[in-house]
Amino acid sequence: MPMNNNPHTLLASMLRGAIGFALLGIAGFLPWAMGWTLGYGEAGMYSLCLICFVVLSGPLLSGLMRGGLVKFYAVFWAAFGAYAALWCAFWFALPVPFRDYYGLAAGCAAFALISGWMLGRVSGWWLGAIVLIVLHGIGYWVGGQAYASLRPLQSLNLLGVITLHGSQCALVAKLAWGLFYGIGFGAGMGAVFHLCQKQRHE
Questions:
Q1: Is pLDDT above 50 for 2?
Q2: Cβ 188 vs Cβ 172: under 8 Å
Q3: Measured between alpha carbons, how far is 12 from 74 in angstroms, rounded to an integer?
Q4: Which of 7, 27, 71, 176 suits 53 as a labelling partner, its CA being 20 to 30 A distant?
Q5: Would you kindly state where each structural domain of the chain is located, as residue ranges?
Q6: Burial class (CB in 10 A: 0-12, 13-18, 19+), 37
Q7: 181: Cβ–Cβ under 8 A, 6 or more apart, which residues?
Q8: Reduced to 3 DSSP states, what percent helix, strand and coil does the chain have, rounded to the nearest 5?
Q9: Is 164 left (phi over 0), alpha (psi -120 to 50) or beta?
């Protein structure tokens, strides 16, 4: 999406973020869905997911931010990289139930704080963090439920046109999680960027 110097409304930013990140979520979950690891197991797979998220984020989401593509990548690299690092730290190092949600909350808080700092206004970052944690948490949970429902199916009929079987159902289940993950994170991210830029230009 091209850069737009006109401020968006909060709802427009959230909607734009949700749509863009829904597509990004599907692409970002593709290495997991396809089992791509580069020969490095789970760590290699998560690294590929992160690369997809970062590289494709610009074309899909840079319109949420003033300043153009380079500035967007600088902010997103730092903020999403911190989010991903914290999520992985909790996932790999904390062998307790719901560790992914602990990582999600810590990562979202870091994302909001770093975004506010790099966009020139840290004040009120916590509000963006709360919105991002809630919306991302909902999207992540809905995606997990969709995955759990679709994964065991032996066949799946899509719109009465295409019938999937076995491993194809598993693939769709994983991409469905990416879709809902992306909708939730994107809506929250749109809110974070809107609040940071709104505060700065008021």
A1: no
A2: no
A3: 23
A4: 7
A5: 10-201
A6: middle
A7: 25, 29, 136, 139, 140, 143
A8: 75, 5, 20
A9: beta
What value, to the nearest 5°, has the Cα angle with vertex 175 and ends 47 and 64?
Answer: 70
Instruction: Write down the residue that tokens 């909001």 correspond to.
Output: 112
Size of the chain in residues? 202
Query: pLDDT tens across 7-57, in order?
Result: 579 999 999 999 999 999 999 999 988 888 888 888 889 889 889 988 999
Burial-class residue 38 by CB neighbours within 10 Å (0-12, 13-18, 19+): exposed
Tokens matching residue 10? 């909060």
pTM for this entry: 0.85
| DSSP string for residues in 154-202 | SEEEETTTEEEETHHHHHHHHHHHHHHHHHHHHHHHHHHHHHHHHHHH-
